[in-house]
UniProtKB/TrEMBL annotation:
Keyword list, A-Z: DNA replication, DNA-directed DNA polymerase, Nucleotidyltransferase, Transferase
GO MF annotations in UniProt: DNA binding; DNA-directed DNA polymerase activity
Domain of life of the organism encoding this protein: Bacteria
Keyword DNA-binding recorded: no
Organism of provenance: Solidesulfovibrio carbinoliphilus subsp. oakridgensis
Keyword Electron transport assigned: no
GO CC term, one of those recorded: DNA polymerase III complex
Protein name, UniProt field: DNA polymerase III delta
One GO BP: DNA-templated DNA replication
C-alpha cells in the first residue's frame, strides 16, 4: 500500500482513534516506530525533531499528535514547511478527537485555512471515523462472543447492546467484567446484564474530585442523587463506576500509568488524586464502596442511606470534618 504523505484522522473515540492509527500502519506493510505527542501539551523540540529529521539509521517513524484539536492556532501555519513534501522516513498523523456535531467533525479554523489541509481533503488523506454508535454494538458483540465461543440467551444480546457505553475503551472494560463473571459458563443469561454498570451521565471521578476539593458533602450527595441517581436501580451502576475509578487509580499508584489510556490532562488529575490517597486511602475507598453495596443488599441500609454513608466516609478520607457521620 502506498502511504499518504500525512494523515488527518477525525474520530471522537480515543480507543478507536488509537486502533485506526495502528491499523493504517500495519496495512502499509512497512515497519514504523510510533512516537506519540498530545495537542493539549506543549509541542516542543522533540516533536519538531521527530517530524522533520530523517535518518537512515533511525528507521521510519509515525509521528502521532493526539487531541490535535487542542493545538494552539499558531501551530498550524508552522507545519507548512514540514508537510509540503513527502518525507519517506516520517508519516505524520494529526488526530482530531473532539465531539462531532450534526455536520460531522469540527475543524479548527486555523487548520482549515492551511493549504496542506486542503490537499489532504483532495487526496483523501483526511479520514473521518465516527465513534461507537448503537448501530455498531450488535456487530461488536457478535465478534466478541464468537472469538470467545460464547452464546446469548434470546433477547440478551439486544439488552447488552443497549446497556454498553458508546465508548470503545469503556465498552471493552464492561465486557471484560462480564467475561470474568461468567467463569466456566459459555451462555450469557439475562441476569448477567447486572454486571454492566455503565449509565449515561454518571462520572465516578467527578464525584471523588468534588469531595477531594473540599466541597460540602451534603451538597455533593444531593447533586449526585438529584442528577444521576433518579431511582434505586441506578445506585449499583454508580458504585460500579466508583470502583472502576478506584481500580484505575490503584494501577496508577502501582506505577502502571503508562498502561492507562487517558488524555494527559485527565491522567494528571487522576495521578494527583492517586498520590494523595496512596495505597491505604485507596483501600479505604474500596472498603467504603463495598460497605455501601453490602448495606443495600443486606437490607440494613436504604439506598439513600448507603449513599449518604459513602459520601461521609469519603469526606473523612479526604481530610474533611472528622465528626461528619453517615446515617444508618
Amino acid at each position: 500500500m502506498k502511504r499518504p504523505g500525512f494523515t488527518f484522522l477525525a474520530c471522537p473515540d480515543p480507543e478507536i482513534t488509537r486502533e485506526r492509527v495502528d491499523r493504517l500502519l500495519a496495512e502499509s506493510g512497512q515497519q514504523f516506530v510510533k512516537e506519540v505527542f498530545w495537542g493539549d501539551e506543549e509541542l516542543s523540540a522533540p516533536f519538531w525533531s521527530a517530524l522533520t529529521v530523517g535518518s537512515l539509521f533511525a528507521g521510519q517513524r509515525a509521528v502521532v499528535v493526539r487531541r490535535a484539536e487542542a493545538c494552539p492556532a499558531e501551530l498550524w501555519p508552522k507545519l507548512t514547511s514540514a508537510l509540503s513534501g513527502f518525507n519517506a522516513s516520517v508519516w505524520p498523523f494529526f488526530c482530531l478527537e473532539g465531539p462531532f456535531d450534526r455536520k460531522g467533525p469540527k475543524i479548527p479554523k486555523a487548520l482549515a485555512d492551511q493549504p496542506y489541509f486542503k490537499v489532504a481533503g483532495k487526496r483523501k488523506w483526511f479520514l473521518t471515523v465516527p465513534g461507537l454508535t448503537r448501530r455498531d454494538m450488535g456487530p461488536l458483540l457478535a465478534d466478541w462472543a464468537a472469538r470467545r465461543r460464547l452464546a446469548f440467551e434470546p433477547g440478551v444480546a439486544e439488552g447488552l447492546a443497549a446497556a454498553l457505553p458508546p465508548d470503545l475503551a469503556r465498552a471493552d472494560n464492561e465486557l471484560a467484567k462480564l467475561e470474568l463473571a461468567l467463569g466456566e459458563r459459555t451462555t450469557i443469561e439475562r441476569g448477567d446484564l447486572a454486571e454492566v454498570s455503565y449509565h449515561e451521565g454518571m462520572d465516578g471521578f467527578e464525584f471523588l474530585d468534588a469531595l477531594a476539593g473540599g466541597r460540602d458533602p451534603a451538597s455533593v450527595w444531593r447533586e449526585i442523587g438529584g442528577k444521576q441517581l433518579a431511582g434505586e436501580e441506578m445506585i449499583f451502576p454508580f458504585l460500579g463506576l466508583l470502583l472502576y475509578e478506584a481500580r484505575i487509580m490503584w494501577r496508577i499508584a502501582a506505577g502502571e500509568a503508562g498502561d492507562v489510556r487517558l488524555p494527559p490532562y485527565v491522567l494528571q488529575k487522576k495521578q494527583a488524586l492517586a498520590r494523595r490517597l496512596g495505597a491505604s486511602g485507596l483501600t479505604r475507598l474500596f472498603e467504603a464502596a463495598f460497605a455501601a453495596e453490602a448495606g443495600i443488599k443486606s437490607g440494613t441500609r436504604r439506598p439513600d442511606q448507603a449513599m449518604e454513608y459513602l459520601t461521609a466516609e469519603l469526606f473523612r478520607l479526604f481530610g474533611g470534618n472528622q465528626g461528619q457521620r453517615g446515617r444508618g
